[in-house]
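Retro notes, item 3 of 5
We never archived the inputs for the zinc ion complex last cycle. Fixing that now. Sequence and ligand:
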Amino acid sequence: MIDSILSFLAHGLLQASAPVLIVYVLVVTQLTIFSVTLYLHRSQAHRGVDFHPLIAHFFRFWTWLTTAMVTRQWVAVHRKHHAKVETAEDPHSPMVHGIKRVFWQGVELYRVAANDKSIEEKYGRGTPDDWIERHVYSRFPEAGPTLLALASILLFGFWGLAIWAIQMLWIPFWAAGFVNGLGHYWGYRNFESSDTSTNLSPWGLWIGGEELHNNHHAFPSSAKFALRKFEVDIGWVVIRLLASMRLAKVLRVAPALDLRPNVHLPDSETLKAVLTHRFRALTDYYRQVIIPTLRDEAAQASERVRAVPSRLRRALADGGRWLDGEGRARLQAMMERRPTLQTVLDYRARLLAALDQRVPEQALHNLQQWVREAEASGIAVLQQYAARLSAYALPAAG
Ligand SMILES: [Zn+2]
Ligand SMILES: [Zn+2]
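Structure as it came back at the time:
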């Protein structure tokens, strides 16, 4: 009798072996990750994909059961992150709050924002508002994890409690800390977006594809996060699988970039494509114009490119946006010894200004003017870039 009670306390009704427990943990935590990235994020916050009501409701139920997060609150906080990114109003910007705080206390930052009714009102529109949402999910968010704890202990005994604790930490750690923190701090950038977002790894396998956070900031409403040949987005694989069974409908994906032959001066099609792909255009500008110019001037002065600290090289990519006063002064001093670099950075600023023009005719006029001047600049890499930029086009629909 005592033995069977002890055995129940230790291993619960199922008496599951260690490998079974490990597989169980992996499955349920990944299901939670998918609920967040596919349902809360890609579908509800950004409307990139729609799910069959059965799938959508499963994700909602699972989010409630394993995270206690309320859809409307999550969506609102996240939309505000995009709208106010890297400003004092961004709910979890490492640029504002510091990387340590966002990484370790990201969940606190989330809670503060989630409890702010004004954020919910302004950014939470269009999320479910049916009977079960009002009477169960939003009303008793903590009931989900409580129910889960009871079920887990019943099925797996003491180990069930340990597994439950892991589940409770999963989203706070991987989403609030890892993605919100490191996804704006560490990794590579495909797109020179106006924030600090980064791709943590080209293979988004562990946190549902959220690893590709820079791609996501460049095209927020795209249901697909992997945008280069070598990138993998496991969340997109799941979407495609569900779509093949008519359980999901993709609403938006990031457009590709086409290059047309024999375009000598930007036209309205160029402008549309450059505006859509402006972050890509800026990345190309960094790689194809700024870095070769830096290399050239360094070679002429018999210096190594590495002589320029990486922080300043980074600043050349984003226009020095994130430098403090001292960094700016150092950048300035560096530019004084490199006149061609200064010139190409001026061109970068003027390209941005041209694209910021709201009246399309004026923007096109400015872009054409920019291309003419770039072609007359006598700087070969800049001329090549201008020619390529003029050829930008969006692929034909369908
Ligand atoms: Zn972000
Ligand atoms: Zn987003």
